[in-house]
């Protein structure tokens, strides 16, 4: 058993950290305050091989696998999870094309995302159905060589900045619910696509989130990803992999909370001694550190197993579930350890506290993860 990262992985992690320190950290506050998405930082990250890094080199990626991608995500999330998301989710939706798409689709859609030229999105959630994936209503009707799509998508990351989205649609309503869906690539500039940015998010405000209306949107039937009727299964499998990326975000944010808190309690004094001298403070640091180490194990192992071709999707769901909990826990303690200063914007912990909560909501709520883990446990 070897718990060491390879030299290449260590270098990748180090490169991502230095990139984030130089490019993301200085922009974090401004982007958070102004809800500003920056293409510039995403493109620079792409130049450094950090966008779609999990995609094989054949299709323009860095070929660092899911573990390499988790390491990048961990490091960039230490500085700003919103800007970090603009990098790690610039290829969101491409997971489906990579796994199920045709050779032509892979060659057409993946390289421009990895190079930074284009941005993708995964359009699944709808205004009336999020957790209940089988409740989506967006309909794609065959018409000659085309599909004509009607429906509404909600909370779509990269919604207003993407060039194309992979959308879950009902193509076979005559089939049982789970066999009625298909994933279809929809160009963002297609006639009938209306995109509205959602303002006022609590956290990850540098990321772009949108509501998308699809009204008689015509796309060629060659935009179908994989086989018709397989969209539900494909989406479930898609989440199994992307959960690891979200768990990597949680790991990075939690580590930032701990490191910043350690620095603060060494400097800040109360009752004539540094805060760190008091056992109540040490308990908080200890609880954060233990959770972080346990989370690291879940993230790295679940990523590594996927790369080894032996995926354990229950472990990935555990990483996501525990990741959200750990991030919320650590951000809460980080604010507490900073006292009143933790509540004002001069210190980043207030932002991390706001950012952390999304980790228990998107890519499957924590309740959805419990349902997934519960199912896997009983299917063993
Ligand atoms: C910033 C942001 C970015 C996002 N990005 C994307 C994206 O890129 N693409 C995309 O498709 N979606 C995206 N989402 C949507 C996100 O994945 C959904 O919000 C999430 O899946 C929950 O769906 P919902 O909001 O409809 O809540 P609901 O499904 O209505 O759930 C509400 C509450 O009920 C609970 N609940 C639901 N069913 C059960 C049950 N059976 N038992 C117990 N509790 C249950 C949920 O856990 C939750 O606590 C994003 C959301 C946000 C906020």
Protein architecture, described:
It contains 12 helices and 10 strands. It is an alpha+beta fold and 380 residues long. The strands form 3 sheets. Strands 1-4-5-8 form a 4-stranded mixed beta sheet. A hairpin with a 2-residue loop joins strand 9 and strand 10 (273-274). Helix 4 (65-76) packs across helix 8 (231-267) and helix 8 (231-267) runs antiparallel to helix 9. The chain binds flavin-adenine dinucleotide. Flavin-adenine dinucleotide binds next to strand 1, strand 3 and helix 12.
The tally of beta strands, per DSSP, is: 10
Bound molecules: flavin-adenine dinucleotide
H/E series: HHHHHHHEEEEEEEEHEEHHHH
| Rg for CA atoms | 21 Å
| Order of strands, widest sheet | 1-4-5-8
- Structural domains: how many: 3
Let me know the average pLDDT: 97
Superfamily (CATH H level) name of the largest domain: Butyryl-CoA Dehydrogenase, subunit A, domain 3
CATH C-level class of the largest domain: Mainly Alpha
Measured distance between first and last alpha carbons = 24 Å
For the structure shown, list the relevant keywords:
380 residues, alpha+beta, Butyryl-Coa Dehydrogenase, subunit A, domain 1, Butyryl-CoA Dehydrogenase, subunit A, domain 2, Butyryl-CoA Dehydrogenase, subunit A, domain 3, 3 domains, four-stranded mixed beta sheet, four-stranded antiparallel beta sheet, 10 strands, 15% strand, binds flavin-adenine dinucleotide
